[in-house]
Amino acid sequence: MHLSEEWYRIYGFDPEEGLSAWEKRLQRMHPEDRAKWQETTARAIAEKSDYEGEHRILLPDGTVKYTHTVGHPVLNASGDVVQFVGIMMDVTARKQAEEALEALRQAQADLARVSRVTTLGELTASLAHEVNQPIAAAVTNANTCLRWLTRDQPDMEEARAAAMRIVKDGTRAAEIVKRIRLLFKKGTSQRELVDVNEVIQDMIVLLGSEATRYNIAVRTELAAELHQFMGDRVQLDQVMMNLIVNSIDAMKGVDGERELAIKSQKAEDDRVLVSVSDTGVGLPPQQADQIFKAFFTTKPQGTGMGLSISRSIVESHGGRLWAADNSPRGARFYFTLSTKAEAPE
Ligand code: ADP
Fold first, then answer.
1. What is the pLDDT of residue 344?
2. Ligand 1 atom showing the smallest separation from residue 305 Cα
3. Is the domain defined by 192-345 classed in CATH 3.30.565.10?
4. Residue 323's beta-bridge partner residues?
5. What is the model's pTM?
6. What does DSSP assign to residue 255?
7. What is d(CA 52, CA 64) in angstroms, rounded to the nearest whole number?
């Protein structure tokens, strides 16, 4: 038996230990990998065959190393194994890089999901709360007003005062709604030169592992030389993310081919047309015209805000967002954007 110095080093032994190290090597093998490794080598001996495998080494100080080993039997003239020649490689760095990359991908996907959920969730909660207050007050005042009017002797003065308060409440609710709409128009908007294909590609990178997790093939068909245009990059990312996440949601549970196809092309009047199609469950039957309404959702955890926000964003960029059935199944969302350089309203 010959063991190279490097072999001792990888196992954390001193070459002086000689062959006693070989006997102790199993103890240093990660307990979870021992049985599989013994099986691999036993089979190679029994079948006189090559072997290959990975196992971890657990050093006394707790360090874990990943190794990759290949071995080859040397046979004599009568076909008996006289020797095995093998190579062991320390692949810890590669493994760690792979694991870090996978963790990073996962984190990115989680982040995309969480940021979508928290933005929409927070927005929904505060929107609901703010609008609810004046509406609740209006209902109370309307009841008061009715009570003054339906008394045996109606008190017109009190009724009028209550009606005035209803007008005030209604105006306040309308102002809140107006403010929210402004938020999606100019308010927080940061206009810069945007390349739509870049938005699509970035969001695919961000959500790619999410698609992979559900066995969804992603296909793109991006027109070359699309005009850049002035837009809010963060908002357009959000639109693309919403459409992709919706497509993934729609395909998660369906059997058969799952494909997400994203296409960009030039359209008339210096416009860009983007389509996102999936082979998912399809638009909710009889309710396809509802999907862009705020709070409309068919999902248990849905907020019903994604499409309504996306539509506001697209419209504030001088475009349109609409949905259609995909053939033979699934849904297809289209949006246009104006590439004219002037800043939209
Ligand atoms: P949420 O995703 O929280 O439900 P959205 O406004 O993004 O909110 O979507 C509203 C509804 O539109 C969804 O609940 C679903 O019924 C429908 N929908 C959206 N995208 C798709 C799609 N790709 N396929 C089928 N239905 C969809």
1. 43
2. 6
3. yes
4. 333
5. 0.57
6. -
7. 20
**Count of residues making up the chain:** 345
Distance in Å, CA 332 to ligand 1 centroid: 11
- What are 32's two structure tokens? 């979870």
Peptide bond into 15 cis (omega under 30): no
CATH class of 5-90: alpha beta
**Mutation pick for ligand 1 pocket among 216, 292, 307 (CB with most ligand atoms within 8 Å):** 307
**Could you tell me the residue ranges of all domains in the chain?**
5-90, 123-188, 192-345
CA distance linking residue 339 with residue 343, whole number of Å: 10
Nearest CA to 244 out of 299, 204, 217 is that of 204
pLDDT band at 183, cuts 50/70/90? Answer: low
Tens of pLDDT, residues 239-281: 998 999 999 999 999 999 999 999 999 998 889 999 999 999 9
The confidence score (pLDDT) of residue 192 equals 85
Q: What is the mean pLDDT of residues 292-309?
A: 86
Nearest-CA residue for ligand 1 atom 20 is: 246
